[in-house]
């Protein structure tokens, strides 16, 4: 009896497997033909701030935020891509960039065929980094392909090798003072735990959003609601807040965040560091405040 049951199970498995492969052959689908698709995001833009330094991005669908790379000084840059081989950009079916001119009425949009540029310059390998930046008055994308670093001039559509002056161990150089300040006061963790806030604190540009895993986040009792309701509205709608490259320093960004996310009427958030020698806690009220405190600490 047991033997008969086993035989019946094996027959059922064989029939199921046969049906599966039959249906795949009928549909013409193969693993090689399966393509990951990242469509161009449908978005609306608005500028905010005294110097129009904040780019507020809202999406038709919040999942489309993946398609926005960030802002340079003059452009908001988004993308679309199709590939079944992310290990070699040469094998992409398509990779397009969409540039929104932040200085034009209506944010005029243009397109760059990144795949065409890559093939023109015969760049091969995995595209592991793609970052918006500006330098010496020009707008670029920093690209790391096959562990080599390049700059794509967004206006001239030319690729050059990234200069050593902006590099740090084959990656785009970060502002270590900013990174250290955020880490020491645990600001990223506090913002995420309280409000689901995700932020990129790496100069020359910064991004701010609310994690898609967090729903019904309420920022109405914070300074940001009173002073920048348009930014608060963008965040609660699942949008992104991008700063235009080089428009805000690391110090300004830190000071903005600890004020924006403080309770209404309170100057800054309650952030503390601990003295390594005495164990005494000190409240940090600004970027400069932290730098002064850090200078008083013994070096390790």
The SS-based structural class is alpha+beta
Question: What does the main sheet amount to?
Answer: 5 strands, antiparallel
Q: Give the percentage of residues in beta strands.
A: 25-35%
Distance between the termini: 74 Å
Q: Secondary-structure element order, as H and E?
A: HEEEEEEEHEEEEEEHHEEHHEHEEH
User: With helices defined by DSSP (H or I, 4 residues minimum), what is the helix count?
Assistant: 8
In helices, the fraction of residues equals 25-40%
Question: How many strands appear in the DSSP assignment?
Answer: 18
Question: Unreliable runs, pLDDT <50, ≥5 residues?
Answer: 1-35
Principal-axis shape equals globular
Radius of gyration: 24 Å
Instruction: Provide mean pLDDT, rounded.
Output: 84
Explain how this protein is built.
With 300 residues, this protein is α+β, with helices and mostly antiparallel strands. It has eight helices and 18 strands. The chain has helices at residues 2-27, 114-120, 176-184, 187-195, 223-227, 229-236, 250-260, 287-295, and strands at 36-38, 43-48, 54-59, 68-71, 75-83, 94-101, 109-113, 127-135, 138-145, 148-153, 158-161, 167-168, 171-172, 197-200, 207-210, 240-243, 272-274, 281-283. Residues 1-35 have low confidence and may be disordered.
């Amino acid at each position: 009896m047991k033997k008969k049951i086993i035989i019946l199970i094996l027959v059922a498995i064989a029939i199921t497997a046969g049906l599966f492969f039959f249906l795949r052959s009928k549909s013409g689908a193969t693993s090689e033909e399966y393509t990951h698709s990242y469509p161009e995001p449908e978005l609306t833009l608005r500028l905010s701030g005294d110097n129009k330094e904040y780019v507020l991005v809202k999406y038709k669908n919040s999942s489309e935020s993946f398609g926005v790379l960030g802002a340079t000084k003059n452009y908001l840059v988004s993308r679309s891509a199709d590939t079944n081989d992310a290990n070699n950009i040469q094998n992409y079916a398509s990779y397009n960039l969409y540039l929104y001119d932040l200085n034009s009425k209506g944010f005029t949009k243009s397109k760059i065929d990144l795949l065409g540029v890559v093939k023109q310059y015969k760049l091969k390998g995995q595209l592991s980094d793609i970052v918006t930046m500006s330098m010496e008055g020009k707008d670029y994308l920093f690209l790391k392909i096959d562990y080599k670093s390049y700059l794509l001039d967004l206006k001239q559509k030319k690729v050059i090798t990234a200069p050593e002056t902006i590099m740090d161990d084959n990656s785009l150089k970060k502002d270590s003072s900013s990174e250290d300040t955020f880490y020491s006061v645990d600001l990223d963790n506090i913002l995420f735990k309280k409000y689901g806030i995700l932020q990129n604190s790496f100069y020359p540009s910064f991004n701010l959003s609310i994690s898609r895993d967090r729903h019904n986040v309420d920022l109405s009792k914070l300074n940001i609601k009173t002073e920048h309701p348009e930014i608060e509205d963008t965040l609660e709608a699942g949008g992104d807040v991008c700063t235009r490259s080089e428009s805000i320093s690391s110090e300004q960004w830190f000071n903005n965040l600890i004020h924006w996310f403080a309770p209404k009427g309170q100057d800054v958030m309650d952030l503390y560091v601990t003295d390594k020698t005495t164990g005494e806690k000190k409240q940090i009220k600004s970027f400069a405040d932290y730098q002064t405190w850090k200078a008083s600490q013994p070096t390790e």
